[in-house]
Amino acid sequence: MAQSTIPAHGGERVAAALAAHGVRFVFTLCGGHISPILVAAKRRGIRIVDTRDEVTAVFAADAVARLTGTPGVAAVTAGPGLTNTITALKNAQLAQSPVVLLGGAAPTALQRRGALQDIDQKRLVAPHVKLVKQVRRVADLGPAVEEALVVAREGVPGPAFVECPVDLLYDEKLVRGWYEDAAGKGTSIPDRLTRWYLNRHVNRMFAGSDRPYEPVADAVTTPEAGERTVARAVEALRRARQPLMILGSQSIVAAAEAPRVAEAVKRLGVPVYLSGMARGVLGRGADLQMHHARRKALRESDFVLLAGVPCDFRLDYGKHVRRSATLIAANRSRKDARLNRKPTIEAIGDAGRFIVALAERVGDERRRDEWILSLTVRDADREKEIDAQAKASGEHVNPVAFFRAMEKAAGENAIFVADGGDFVGTASYILRPRGPLAWLDPGAFGTLGVGAGFALGASVVKPRSEVWIVWGDGACGYGLAEFDTFVRHGIPIIAVVGNDAGWTQIAREQVKMLGDDVGTVLGRTAYHEVVKGFGAEGVEIRRDSEVEAGLAEARRIAASGKPVLVNVWLDKTEFREGSISM
Ligand SMILES: Cc1ncc(C[n+]2csc(CCOP(=O)(O)OP(=O)(O)O)c2C)c(N)n1
Ligand SMILES: [Mg+2]
User: Fold this and answer.
1) Number of the ligand 1 atom closest to the C-alpha atom of 425
2) Do 423 and 399 meet the contact criterion of CB atoms below 8 Å apart?
3) Which ligand has the minimum distance to the alpha carbon of residue 423?
4) 53, 473, 505, 571: which to mutate for ligand 1, most atoms within 8 A of CB?
5) How many other C-beta atoms are found inside a 10 Å radius of the C-beta of residue 326?
6) Which atom of ligand 1 approaches the CA of 570 most closely?
7) What is the pLDDT of residue 114?
8) What is the position in ligand 1's atom list of the atom closest to the CA of 471?
9) Is the pLDDT at 572 greater than 90, yes or no?
């Protein structure tokens, strides 16, 4: 079908802007306010993925953004549709993920007059986004969406919100008809005044909408630290005897550049810890990558490069880094670079590009074999301890042994989504992400409930990958109904639920400190049966001896195109004793 450059209605303009910027998916839960956007987007070949909770739609958009570097888009209806997204929006903001949220709104002339689902959406959303656009004219719809798509990606990425009132989205003739009906046919002066007012209002809404609209997708420039900063860092690195790097999500925020960043890390020859989305950036079994005893390594290091990692709670607010060390903060955000601790060198710009720039200038003239060896030995010692913990057997499944088995079972193209407490903490020590962009966790917000949405987003952008959700039994409750979405859309997720009949990460400390497990106890619920009601498959594993066959069965089911939930009955272990629980 030929597309006129004068879109038929506002929904078409929104869809045209999305398509021009390379958006391939819109996650949603429907509502009358946004129907024209969904229908027009579908017509342009954008895949509409409808979920069972708006929060899932935004989590899914977040995953798309992280895995592609192109904004992930969700569209939700006015009022409660929008309020349901707030947790995911905040999560995306703290994870610096470029999400664009399109929200419906009451008709422009009825706002603040008691219309259905009409609330002050700007005030609700503004604290959590980089940009709020409240569109008032049809001709502004496309440019507003385009601006949101650009703002979300540039500088420090993050979410942006565009409010699209319903009367801007429909065909002009139809909307004029609504307003004529609303104005009535009365002849009194107030009636005529209302008619005049509404007519003027509609004319303003549609002003300029008879002109062609052609979206233009501009490239977003990547901020880079200056040459002098790079040179200073090179100098410091040359002098360093025990250098260390930590790479966080922001270092691969330009997803397409992840392989270049990985190359650069290897060239630098500096031992590295990976966190967030950067986990797996070096693939499995890279010599320079350390997994354990990060705090100790940081204390010993005389040169610490934090690439896209702020000194927040995860680094004990910067206390893990020695005072005398050269601290380099490579970060798009000046605020994050300075958080809690002033770095010796501040490299404001893309952290991945900074590493690439460093690697171009530093040769491998300096060998640091002893340093690397000491870290490697420590890592290997910890692995031996883990092996010993994996051997302990009890009545049900040992989580450490379970993840050792899952590490073996999962395919080379696996993506792991982490959502839960202790079960996920254990997974993060043992599972090895297969490559760049193969690990998704909530990020700094520590949000339970991201699993289903993240997995949905990951699966639609990487249809050939085997997408696993590592779910606590507590965490799985938030998104279990999305098995319905997985079934309807033919999305073969493998969810493994660590069933310890409780919110264990919290219970552990609560019971120890306060002597009461109130609020932390769940049942050994048959989650694998629950998903069968949605048309998915379920597998139950109660004993260590059933793990291998159970996982193989799950992979077979997923390979046949069906989603599956593996309900794993866990024993308690001491593995997570002493770790944080907030
Ligand atoms: C939205 C949200 N609510 C509550 C918490 C607090 N919290 C952190 S871990 C945890 C327990 C998770 O339980 P489960 O998913 O079963 O994992 P387990 O620790 O039992 O392995 C809770 C409730 C949170 N992080 N996020
Ligand atoms: Mg649990």
Assistant:
1) 21
2) yes
3) 1
4) 505
5) 22
6) 21
7) 80
8) 15
9) no
Q: What percent of the chain has pLDDT over 70?
A: 97
Contact yes or no for 158/90 (Cβ under 8 A): no
**Burial of 549 from C-beta contacts in 10 A (0-12 / 13-18 / 19+):** exposed
Residue 210 has what DSSP assignment? T
Handedness of CA 108, 113, 119, 121 (dihedral sign): positive
Instruction: For ligand 1, atom 5, name the residue with the nearest CA.
Output: 448
Closest CA to 160 of 12, 23, 13: 23
- Most confident segment among 2-6, 176-180, 478-482: 478-482
The kind and range of the H/E element at 121 are helix 121-125
Please give the Cα distance from 196 to 189 (Å, whole number). 10
Burial 385-402 (b: 16+ CB within 10 A, else e): ebeebbeeeeebbbbbbb
Q: Is the dihedral of CA 487, 488, 492, 497 positive or negative?
A: negative
Residue 465 φ/ψ region, left for φ over 0, alpha for ψ in the -120 to 50 degree band, beta for the rest: beta
Residue among 357, 449, 331, 465 at smallest CA distance from 411: 465
Give the nearest ligand 1 atom to 473 CA. Answer: 16
List, chain by chain if needed, residues with CB within 6 Å of any ligand 1 atom.
Answer: 420-423, 446-449, 472-475, 498, 500, 502-506
Q: What DSSP element (H or E) covers 474?
A: helix 473-479
CA-wise closest residue to 253 among 92, 36, 120, 134: 92
Two tokens at 233?
Answer: 């860092």
Contacts of 143 (CB under 8 A, 6+ apart): 17
For residue 4, what pLDDT is reported?
66
Asked whether the CA dihedral 546, 547, 548, 551 is positive or negative, the reply is positive
Beginning with the edge strand found earlier in the chain, give each strand of the sheet holding 439-440 in spatial order. 439-440, 414-419, 466-472, 494-499, 564-569, 537-541
Q: Measured in angstroms, how far is the CA atom of residue 506 from the centroid of ligand 2?
A: 9
Cα R_g (the chain), whole angstroms: 26
3-state secondary structure 272-301: EEECHHHCCCCCCCCCCECCCCHHHHHHHC
Strand partners, 467: 415
99-144 pLDDT per residue, tens: 999 999 999 988 888 888 888 999 999 999 999 999 999 999 999 9
Euclidean distance between CA atoms 246 and 275, whole angstroms? 7
CA distance 45 to 24: 8
The CB density around residue 552, as the number of other CB atoms within 10 Å, is 13
- Which among 471, 475, 425, 473 has a CA at the least distance from the CA of 575? 425
**For atom 6 of ligand 1, which residue has the closest CA?**
582
Q: How far is the CA of 522 from the centre of ligand 2 (A)?
A: 8
Phi first, then psi, for residue 112 (nearest 5°) are: 65, 25
Q: Is 563 exposed, middle or buried (0-12, 13-18, 19+ CB in 10 A)?
A: buried
Nearest to 379 by CA among 469, 460, 285: 285
Q: Rounded to whole angstroms, how far apart are CA atoms 25 and 70?
A: 11
Question: What is the model's pTM?
Answer: 0.96
